[in-house]
Design a protein that fits this description.
heterodimer, A: 255 residues, 9 helices, 86% helix, B: 252 residues, alpha/beta, six-stranded mixed β-sheet, four-stranded antiparallel β-sheet, globular
């Protein structure tokens, strides 16, 4: 195949996908703000996306904070800057690692789960059945999941931030001989309101993206079991890429 | 003049063409379903029978032409379309929601579209289960704990709970043993009569066709090959229809 033609075809396919995702996102937002609202579905999704993600988010945040403290101590000691460990750990966790790690962990658990669930519903005609029961699948299935993602991710990130900082604190006090009260004071002194807020805004955006990708790929799944599996894979991969891309864009805006 | 010709047209496919990529599934397809009559659509696999129903439900948008219910064109993907709102549909797989107990599946339309109170909706769902001869003790079970026949009964109860004017049946006896299939066919016949509904069914099962049809249409290559009342199907006016109904291949 002519390489120019192949490149052009690839570019067109990419633009087509981007257009389809954008349209789906707009339909989702429209469905989310237009009654009827399915409160029961939303509560169920808040529990599944939020509460059930707590262990995995908490554990990864704990280990990330602990490893970050060790790395910063090792690097800082090369130019006598070990005392900056609490400052950099807290800033790094709150502005960057808390939201990104939490979003990636939730996307691994939730995006694939959503895509598999909705994909299976597509394969077994349950989505068509919703139409025949006078219920809009965008409002009943998609909007509650995406709203739950936007609400839950900032809450999970608050918890991830606290646990991540606690991980750094534990390692610093236990193995690096930091004074606990000085560590806590330095942590609190360095953090500004905007540091926390910008991380939570990122989290809300990531929550939107990772649930949207799960819903989009599940809703458009084709071809039975293989299609459902492919949808789950695509959901996780696309959510992860979009999370990193959005993180860069938002960080550029927030610095 | 036949009974079919005397009753008004309820559903009309008018020059409907449906293409998926380069494949034409329905090709300037025209068909009418008359009020209060049961039309069964037969044909080989992949000739567009399910697509025919999905265009009437607004699930597939025709590439050209239109489907009308009561003279109004069906809108695409609009669950609030007045034509679609009077439809009850029995899907081939049942398409019950795994996450809900049977009674909530049956009462889904009442709870979510008609905003009926839960107690009242449950009572209506239980009545619908009675109508399809499914024990009320199954009401709180999950669909995955039901047998194939029970699943079809539950799905049929969901289709009729809204007291529909139109009923669609997509391969209603697929996957059932002959005895259970016969029970389901008789249930369908009874419910269509009970609601005086217009019914459109698609099936490969000739026993099913003989039980539930008033009129029969056969699709081939995206068009209607033959249509007429059930009594004329086996008179072999059309050799191809005759072979299909008898289950004979061309070289027999």
């Amino acid at each position: 195949m002519n390489p120019v033609r192949a490149l052009g075809a690839g570019l067109l396919a990419l633009l087509q996908s981007a257009g389809a995702v954008t349209r789906f996102a707009l339909e989702t937002v429209f469905a989310a703000v237009r009654p009827p609202f399915f409160g029961g579905q939303l509560l169920q999704q808040l529990f599944r996306l939020g509460f059930l993600s707590l262990p995995v988010v908490g554990l990864t945040a704990l280990f990330t904070g602990a490893a970050l403290a060790l790395n910063i101590y090792t690097g800082g000691s090369r130019f006598n800057a070990e005392s900056f460990v609490p400052n950099i750990v807290s800033l790094g966790i709150v502005r960057e690692l808390g939201p990104v790690i939490a979003a990636l962990m939730v996307s691994g658990r939730v995006s694939s789960g959503i895509a598999a669930e909705i994909g299976a519903m597509r394969a077994t005609e349950q989505i068509d059945a919703l139409h025949t029961l006078a219920t809009d699948p965008m409002r009943y299935l998609i909007a509650p999941r995406v709203i739950a993602g936007v609400i839950v991710l900032p809450l999970l990130v608050i918890i991830a931030n606290l646990i991540g900082i606690l991980g750094g604190f534990a390692v610093s006090v236990q193995t690096l001989d930091f004074d606990p009260s000085v560590y806590i004071k330095n942590t609190l002194d360095i953090l500004e309101r905007w540091d926390v807020l910008s991380g939570l805004i990122k989290a809300a955006v990531f929550g939107f993206l990772l649930t949207l990708m799960g819903c989009y790929h599940g809703y458009h799944a084709e071809g039975g079991a293989q299609g459902v599996g492919q949808a789950a894979t695509n959901a996780v991969v696309s959510a992860a890429v979009l999370i990193f891309a959005a993180n860069f864009l938002l960080t550029s805006l927030f610095v | 003049m036949t009974a079919q010709d005397q009753s008004p047209v309820k559903i009309a496919w008018k020059d409907v063409t449906v293409r998926f990529g380069s494949t034409t599934v329905l090709d300037r397809f025209s068909l009418e379903a008359h009020e209060g009559r049961s039309l069964v659509i037969i044909g080989g696999s992949g000739v567009g029978k399910s697509v025919t129903i999905k265009t009437a439900l607004g699930l597939i948008r025709p590439s050209s032409g239109k489907v009308e219910i009561d003279g109004h064109a069906v809108k695409h993907n609009r669950e609030d379309d007045p034509g679609v709102a009077q439809i009850g549909m029995l899907f081939q797989s049942g398409a019950l929601f795994d996450s809900l107990p049977v009674w909530k599946n049956v009462a889904f339309r009442l709870l979510h579209a008609e905003h009926m109170k839960a107690d009242e909706a449950r009572e209506r769902a239980l009545e619908a289960l009675d109508q399809v001869d499914l024990d009320r003790e199954n009401a709180d079970k999950r669909p995955n704990s039901l047998s194939g026949g029970m699943l079809k009964r539950a799905a049929l109860a969901r289709a009729i709970v809204g007291r529909p004017k139109i009923l669609f049946f997509d391969e209603p006896t697929t996957g059932l043993d002959p005895v259970t299939a016969d029970v389901i066919n008789k249930l369908i016949k009874r419910q269509v009569k009970h609601f005086n509904a217009t019914a459109v069914s698609i099936t490969h099962d000739m026993a099913s066709m003989r039980t539930i049809a008033d009129d029969v249409a056969m699709i081939k290559d995206g068009k209607i090959l033959w249509r007429g009342p059930l009594s004329e199907v086996e008179s072999c006016e059309n050799a191809e229809v005759c072979r299909f109904v008898r289950g004979e291949s061309e070289d027999e």
